């Protein structure tokens, strides 16, 4: 008998996406599964729409915007599945998406996470994400984001972690390492969770057959000051919590160089101070993050460094960023 999966969709004023998103979920070939929509205080009629159009979907109303991390956690705590599946509301999943995720996880009890192939909704031949890549400077990005879907990867491969926009997590793993860090609100919470899981010996796979089409930042505008501030803040918290000793001290000059270069590039080249403000804001909860670090490092059982990606030079990194952003920008006007 198949294990039950719980698909969680966190929604904030995303009514325009829900017809296609939920309809696709109702055609999944895997069984049994449940769909839980977590509404973070939407004011666009999302809750009434789903209740009337999709009565089989369980709706949780938070009444206010708790963020992506806490929104998912609310559902995870009441979900009945052995597999927890997180999905952005601005997506359309292929019918066998869930089946392909489960299929890979069930090949090894130490596989606690599985990433999807996320394609740009408006550019279906371009990869949005194939999971998370992370390098020694603590820089995380969408693996192969902005590259052509050339079919180079046909079989599941091991990666660092999944993008929570379309990911499967084993309940047993979450029970051991904990849920998303709610202090993050949104962004980098999946990097943090994957890093914590890796430090406890859990594996992550990417299955190129588990396909999802993603608008990308459909309800959280790409490039906004709000998003860039959270990314800057949460990146610091992720490294403070998870980067193992003594390597963090060995690579600290490199980490500082790349991080400050990124913040000042945004400030002077793009006239955007929000990434720098986010880094400064990270200091407010630094004592709490150091407390969490002590717990995480005390329970560490393995090193995730073999799964770190090579560190790119700043020019290559900038080109990678600009290529990815170009597809997001073009997608807004399609």
- The total domain count is 1
> Quick one: CATH superfamily?
Spore Coat Polysaccharide Biosynthesis Protein SpsA, Chain A
Oligomer: single chain
The number of strands is: 12
Distance between the termini: 44 Å
In terms of DSSP E residues, the strand content is: 15-25%
The biggest sheet, with number of strands, parallel, antiparallel or mixed sense and barrel status, is:
10 strands, mixed
Low-pLDDT runs of 5+ residues are none
- Average pLDDT: 94
Helix segment count? 12
CATH class: Alpha Beta
Classify the helix fraction into a percent range. 40-55%
Description of the structure:
The protein is α/β, with parallel strands linked by helices and 334 residues long. It has one domain (1-334): Spore Coat Polysaccharide Biosynthesis Protein SpsA, Chain A. The protein is 41% helix and 21% strand. The chain has helices at residues 15-25, 46-53, 67-78, 97-105, 171-177, 189-199, 225-242, 247-250, 252-268, 274-281, 286-298, 314-331, and strands at 5-11, 33-39, 58-61, 83-88, 91-93, 111-120, 123-129, 132-134, 140-142, 157-158, 166-170, 203-214. β1 (5-11), α1 and β2 (33-39) form a beta-alpha-beta unit. The longest helix has 18 residues, at 225-242. The mean pLDDT is 94.
């Amino acid at each position: 008998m198949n294990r039950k999966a719980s698909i969680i969709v966190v929604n904030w004023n995303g009514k325009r996406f829900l017809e296609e998103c939920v309809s696709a979920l109702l055609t999944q070939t895997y069984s049994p599964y449940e769909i839980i929509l977590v509404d973070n205080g939407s004011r666009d009629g999302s809750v009434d729409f789903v209740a009337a159009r999709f009565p089989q979907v369980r709706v949780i109303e938070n009444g206010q915007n708790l963020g992506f991390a806490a929104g998912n956690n609310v559902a995870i705590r009441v979900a009945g599945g052995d597999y927890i599946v997180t999905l952005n509301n601005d997506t359309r999943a292929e019918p066998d998406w869930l089946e392909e995720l489960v299929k890979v996880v069930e090949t090894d009890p130490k596989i606690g996470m599985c990433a999807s192939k996320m394609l740009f909704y408006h550019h279906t031949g371009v990869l949005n994400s194939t999971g998370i890549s992370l390098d020694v400077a603590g820089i995380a990005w969408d693996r192969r984001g902005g590259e052509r879907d050339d079919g180079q990867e046909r079989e599941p491969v091991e990666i660092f972690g999944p993008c929570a926009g379309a990911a499967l997590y084993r309940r047993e793993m979450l029970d051991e390492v904990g849920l998303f860090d709610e202090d993050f609100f949104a962004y980098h919470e999946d990097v943090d969770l994957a890093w914590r899981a890796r430090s406890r010996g859990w594996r992550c796979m990417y299955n190129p057959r588990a396909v999802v089409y993603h608008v990308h930042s459909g309800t959280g505008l790409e490039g906004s000051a709000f998003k860039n501030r959270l990314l800057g803040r949460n990146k610091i918290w992720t490294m403070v919590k998870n980067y193992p000793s003594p390597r963090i001290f060995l690579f600290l000059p490199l980490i500082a160089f790349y991080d400050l270069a990124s913040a000042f590039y945004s400030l002077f080249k793009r006239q955007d101070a929000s990434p720098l403000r986010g880094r400064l804001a990270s200091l407010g909860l630094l004592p709490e993050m150091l407390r969490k670090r002590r717990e995480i490092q005390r329970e560490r059982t393995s090193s995730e460094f073999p799964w770190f990606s090579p560190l790119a030079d700043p020019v290559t990194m900038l080109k990678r960023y600009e290529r990815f952003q170009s597809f997001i920008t073009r997608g807004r006007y399609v």
